[in-house]
């Protein structure tokens, strides 16, 4: 059976400089794992029995980044499913998009992660070394730009 995980791609908007485009003020939250290769990823985790995918995404975000659902705005119209093998077994990860209501909210990491960064798109893509994650971040950015 495929492993299923769910998470949120979280972004915040900083006050843009008057001369810059609104989309230049967007930063994405990535967490660095404290295990394995210490890769960078949005908050996500495995679906617990009896939980639906979106509940999982919010629970994992709370556990891994200390963010309550009430501190986030779920963005309608964006949902992304990634599929890739992990240790020879298929894995499905479903992501939704959420915006921080207050861009200064504190991130509180669990012991699953050792660091976090708020990153502009270009840097976020450098940190997220997996191609499908890079493509997803670019797709999210395009989606947000198209809504401006």
Automatic annotation (TrEMBL):
Q: Which GO terms describe its biological process?
A: AMP biosynthetic process; ATP biosynthetic process
Pfam families for the chain: NUDIX (PF00293)
Q: Which residues form the Nudix hydrolase domain?
A: 1-141
What's its catalytic activity? a 5'-end CoA-ribonucleoside in mRNA + H2O = a 5'-end phospho-adenosine-phospho-ribonucleoside in mRNA + (R)-4'-phosphopantetheine + 2 H(+); a 5'-end FAD-phospho-ribonucleoside in mRNA + H2O = a 5'-end phospho-adenosine-phospho-ribonucleoside in mRNA + FMN + 2 H(+); P(1),P(4)-bis(5'-guanosyl) tetraphosphate + H2O = GMP + GTP + 2 H(+)
Q: Which GO terms describe its molecular function?
A: bis(5'-nucleosyl)-tetraphosphatase (asymmetrical) activity; nucleotide binding
Documented EC number(s): 3.6.1.17
Q: Name the CDD domains on file.
A: NUDIX_Ap4A_Nudt2 (cd03428)
Keywords, comma-separated and alphabetical: Hydrolase, Nucleotide-binding
Q: Write down the top EC class of this protein.
A: hydrolase
Keyword match Transmembrane: no
Please report which protein family the annotation says this sequence is part of: Belongs to the Nudix hydrolase family.
Can you name this protein? Bis(5'-nucleosyl)-tetraphosphatase [asymmetrical]
Q: Which organism is it from?
A: Ptilorrhoa leucosticta
């Amino acid at each position: 059976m495929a492993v299923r995980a769910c998470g949120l791609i979280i972004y915040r908007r900083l006050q843009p400089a008057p001369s810059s485009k609104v989309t230049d003020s967007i930063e994405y939250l990535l967490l660095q794992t404290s295990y394995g290769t210490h890769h960078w990823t949005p908050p996500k985790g495995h679906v617990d029995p009896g939980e639906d995918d979106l509940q999982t995404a919010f629970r994992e975000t709370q556990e891994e980044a200390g963010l309550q659902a009430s501190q986030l705005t779920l963005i309608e119209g964006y949902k992304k499913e990634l599929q890739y093998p992990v240790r020879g077994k298929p894995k499905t990860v479903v992501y939704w998009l959420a915006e921080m209501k207050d861009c200064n909210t504190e991130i509180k990491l669990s012991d699953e992660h050792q660091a976090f960064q708020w990153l502009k798109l270009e840097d976020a893509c450098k940190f997220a070394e997996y191609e499908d994650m890079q493509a997803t971040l670019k797709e999210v950015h395009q989606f947000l730009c198209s809504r401006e």
